[in-house]
Amino acid sequence: MKNLFSIVPAMAGLGLGVVPAFASTSAQFNLMTWGNGQATVQLPSAVGLKPSSALPATGDWLVFNGDDQSGQSNPQGSLSHNFADLSGQGGAAGYNMAPSLTGSLTLDFDPSGNNTWDVSVSGLTYSGQATSMIFMNQYLITPGSPATLDSKYQVDGNGNAGTWSSDTNGGWAIQYNMDFYFDANISGDAIDVTFNNAPQAGYLLPVSLLTTQGLANLTLDDPANLYGGDFENYLLTQIAPRLPANATYLLVTQMNKVHPGYASTGMPLGVSGLVGNTTFAYTTSAIPEPATLGLIGIGGLLLMRRRFN
Fold first, then answer.
1. pTM, whole model, 2 decimals?
2. In whole angstroms, what separates CA 95 from the centre of its chain?
3. Residues of the chain with pLDDT > 90: what percent?
4. Which of 3, 40, 218, 289 lies at a 20 to 30 A Cα distance from 132?
């Protein structure tokens, strides 16, 4: 036994101390909301707000800006929205309706290198409200899901994956593709609109970094490149103060407008239409970095070595 544990320092020196059993982690991210009960004078509610009026010439896909449209169907004060450009003629930012999103998604993380991770999407359940009468919910498609069993839906459920760089050098950048579908209450179908390998891109940031000093060595812009202001200042002044006190990471992603692969005849959105997205979500879970996991593995072995010596 002593001979076995005598090799631990050498393993650590060679970077072999990461224990695979500790390497993977999963985190549920909840979409941010800011309702009337949370609002203050300095941080007003998002209830009734959409990022802009319909079909703006320019738009930022973000609430709490001067171009917000008030009096809309956003009862829970959602900060996340889908953007449906029904004709596909609205330009980069234009849309006809913006379902306000609540719900959660689950991401799985596997270390793939020094401060890099493979990311998999294993859960997605969004409730979307476009108007007082139109609901457009969103769900993940995985291999074997009903949408994959009929070729007309144009999805396979594969590829719900991407990467994350968990350090400042990598910009805390995250990107992944998703297969998902909309289920709207305006048609008789359970699967109304589908998307295959729709790209999501943005940042997964430790909440501890959301200070002026913490962001000093980063250059963060809105992923869709629609916001003309200072995006880091937006995160600091509008998003960070609205996070729960126990939030550990902030997920910010956007999907530039893409065509669906399938749309049912009962939908106003066809395959020539376009849909984009903005997501603000948080987790209260810990996502340990690969270097930390290595220390945990080495530390555990060293404790065992002391015990058996």
1. 0.88
2. 21
3. 81
4. 40
